[in-house]
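F.,

This is the one I mentioned.
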């Protein structure tokens, strides 16, 4: 077995006939905590969607745990251990917190009925709100619910699209701490698309920067220089 968990080799992908990603190469190792940075519209969301199978890869290959999954449908990728927490969180507003969590079981293909207690160790707040409608939670609480739902299928890797967007600072800190714990204690690999550079620096050890559908820089977050930030990230 190789060290790499996920590899994108020369990936081109997009919407219909319109390519958005061009020849993307990316290697993510087991246990990595990675941030994916770039200005609006450069293709970050499309990259995550291509990994989980919501955008078709027209050229190149996607390898997960040494298996070529380029043509696998989304549900199969979930069962193999890829969890996707989309931008906007996609909590079902009229379902209870408990039922929103249970949706995570369907992604795993298991028919279990009990929420594992570790979910509430990571997110004690959810336990107090189980019967409430998901839509009544604050934005930050909904984000925590979305991450918890992703954890329900025992993922090997979690893909998060702007988890801190529109969330108050105290909860941002909580989310950062929880993601770090999930990474360290459970060994789950994490890729986070992020606009907030300071948050990305604190959270992740490694970074990738995208521009116009390609990866233009990568390294340790300690090497994320001001010149890279000015060139590719500030508006
Ligand atoms: N459903 C769609 N159909 C066609 N083109 C799309 C669609 N969604 C996004 N695009 C285009 O794909 C490109 C990349 O968008 P994407 O959302 O991946 O970028 P992003 O880096 O995640 O930006 P943001 O930070 O704004 O989410 C943009 O030019 C966008 O207009």
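My design for it:
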């Amino acid at each position: 077995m190789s060290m790499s968990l996920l590899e994108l080799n020369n990936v081109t992908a997009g919407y219909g006939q319109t390519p958005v990603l061009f020849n993307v190469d990316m290697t993510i190792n087991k246990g990595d905590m990675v941030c994916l940075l770039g200005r609006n519209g450069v293709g970050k969301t499309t990259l995550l969607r291509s990994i989980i199978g919501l955008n078709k890869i027209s050229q190149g290959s996607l390898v997960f745990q040494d298996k070529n999954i380029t043509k696998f449908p989304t549900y199969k990728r979930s069962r193999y251990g890829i969890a996707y927490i989309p931008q906007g969180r996609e909590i079902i507003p009229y379902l209870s917190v408990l039922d929103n969590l249970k949706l995570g079981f369907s992604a795993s293909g298991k028919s279990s009925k009990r929420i594992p207690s570790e979910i509430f160790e990571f997110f004690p707040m959810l336990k107090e709100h189980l019967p409430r409608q998901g839509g009544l939670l604050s934005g930050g609480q909904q984000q925590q619910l979305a991450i918890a739902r992703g954890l329900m299928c025992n993922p090997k890797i979690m893909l998060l699209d702007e988890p801190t967007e529109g969330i108050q600072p105290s909860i941002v800190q909580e989310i950062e701490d929880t993601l770090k714990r999930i990474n360290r204690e459970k060994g789950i690999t994490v890729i986070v698309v992020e606009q907030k550079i300071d948050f990305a620096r604190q959270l992740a050890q490694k970074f990738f920067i995208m521009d116009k559908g390609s990866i233009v820089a990568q390294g340790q977050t300690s090497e994320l220089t001001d010149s890279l930030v000015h060139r590719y990230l500030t508006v």
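Residues 15, 18, 20, 38, 40-46 surround adenosine-5'-triphosphate (CB under 6 Å).

Talk soon.
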